[in-house]
Amino acid sequence: MLREFLNSVSLFDLPLLAMGIFVAMFFAVLLRVSQRSRRSDYAHMASLPLLDDDQGRK
């Protein structure tokens, strides 16, 4: 089945498909990171390396 699929698809289509998936995932992550509602979560995670072990636990 995979061999038939690869024979019917030109070699130019697969890199375009891979690039499309990459761009879609990149923008999904970018949107998730830039949400204002998650700002407090990211501030807490950013301060974790500076805290002692007992202070980092909720």
Description:
By secondary structure, the protein is mainly alpha-helical. The protein has one domain. 64% of the residues lie in helices and 0% in strands. The chain has three helices and no strands. The protein has helices at residues 2-8, 13-33, 39-47. 0% of the residues are buried. The model has no long low-confidence stretch (mean pLDDT 83).
Produce the secondary structure layout.
Blueprint: H1 2-8, H2 13-33, H3 39-47
Provide a compact summary of the structure.
With 58 residues, the chain is an all-alpha fold. Helices cover 64% and strands 0% of the residues.
What labels describe this entry?
58 residues, mainly alpha, 3 helices
Q: What low-confidence regions span 5 or more consecutive residues with pLDDT below 50?
A: none
Q: Compute the gyration radius: what is it?
A: 21 Å
Distance from N terminus to C terminus (CA atoms, Å) equals: 51 Å
Number of strands: 0
Shape: elongated
Number of domains: 1
Order of helices and strands: HHH
Which class of secondary structure composition applies to the elements? Answer: mainly alpha
Helix proportion: 55-70%
How many individual helices? Answer: 3
Mean pLDDT, all residues: 83
